[in-house]
Amino acid sequence: MKQTYKPSMDTIASLCKRRGFIFQSSDIYGGINGFWDYGPLGCELKRNIRDAWWKNVVQSRENVVGLDASIIMHPKVWEASGHVGGFSDPMVDCRSCKKRYKADALCEEQGKNLVRTATGYALPDGIKCSTCGSKDLTEPRAFDLMFKTHVGPVEDDSSVAYLRPETAQGIFAQFANVLATARQKVPFGIAQIGKAFRNEINPRNYTFRSREFEQMELEFFIKPGTDKEWHDFWVKERLAWYEQIGFPPESLRLDVHPQEKLAHYASACVDIQYEFPFGAQELEGIAARGDFDLTQHQKFSGKSMEYFDQETNERFVPHVIEPSAGVDRIALAIICNAYREEWVPKGDGNNKAPVEAEPGKQAPEGYETRTVMQFDPKIAPVKVAVFPLLKNKPELVEKARSVFSKLSPIWPCFWDQVGAIGRRYRRQDEIGTPFGVTIDFQTVEDDTVTLRDRDSMQQTRLAINDLPEKLREILA
Ligand code: ATP
Fold first, then answer.
1. CA 233 and chain centroid, separation
2. Nearest-CA neighbor of 380 among 48, 51, 56?
3. Whole-prediction pTM value?
4. Which of 29, 63, 456, 460 could make an SS bond with 188 (beta carbons 3.0 to 4.6 A apart)?
5. What digits encode the pLDDT tens for the residues 345-380?
6. Which residue ranges form the domains of the chain, and what is each CATH number?
């Protein structure tokens, strides 16, 4: 069903905590800003996102291979990539209320642009603290986004290392090894999923801007001169993937970066954005980065990053197209996109369809309000819930157990025998389980069960033996 209103982020955060999708990191100690933990349902959801990406980007293509690089790498990697010294955001502090902002975001919020100066940045006239309204702000100062650590027992300058701020550099640094071993020819890609760390000035919008997050990145190496066609190709491929995992096309936006905003080495960049309750924001950036990264590593390491094309007898440093997506942002977008409040006939409807609730209004007579997470079945954390109608009837429980053990090796299943069946359906609606299987007295007689559909609330009766095939059909 099409969603016509957007839940607030408070509503989303409260559901995520209540039902075990996302918790504050170190919650019992009051949390730590910019860090999050994924609970039982959140980690299943993230796993499904990663699997769907890996299947689409790596497994189903003969010209993309995977990599799992270390998080801490030689510090030279970050000098070559331009992150040491260059990976910083200008920030401003409010001297009155001590709030800290990314200078460009604060200016943008107030309809202005941060001013570039010969030595750095300056605030345009009239910028105020958006928390307390004070104009007593510091000048913008560079803030290094990389987390530093030390490798080995001695903490001095020679042992400094960094937690990677992106997964991409692990791929560039292993380009030559993969090329020598993977029997690939340009054009081909190397993909990686993994954690990245950025000491963001102002983590906000729930998990959207975190200090520890997960990226899914592809570096697709191409022949120089084919940049535009491959960039267009990957923008289309990536957009199609978002639709495949259940995003309605109208919830997605393409933000094409104008030429003057591109990094000096890039020829194109397009962001895929989702319409979050706090505005349209980036889920993924797809950039044509030329040969910048490989050339930098060639220079800093002294090792050749050239490719020899046997067909044309040409030698060149490949150019690269980089689709770079964030697992956490996609998870948050999926959660926002799935959230619905509906009015449903009491007693779970007797096959009557639900209607969208009017925000803030009581359900009409004979109806109750349900919260339902309409995840695409492919991405839903739990696929099937199994319910014995009554928990104190051993023959029902035993039969239900046998159904559960038939399905649970194939899909994540949920066992629930407690409470009235209508309440159990509601609990599954709220975590977005697409199917409920109820075992009742008729099951004991003829080995049939009812299969309840989360969205339509329709119930159909079918034989236990036909259940896996039927579910496979819908979940495929
Ligand atoms: P932004 O402009 O929002 O800071 P970015 O352009 O710096 O993002 P990239 O460096 O292109 O982001 O990183 C690629 C992807 O990694 C982003 O599209 C996003 O999905 C994810 N990502 C980046 N920073 C964060 C973060 N702080 N928290 C969560 N995800 C992030």
1. 22
2. 48
3. 0.91
4. 63
5. 887 656 678 888 988 889 988 888 999 999 999 999
6. 9-76+163-336 (3.30.930.10), 88-143 (no CATH), 382-475 (3.40.50.800)
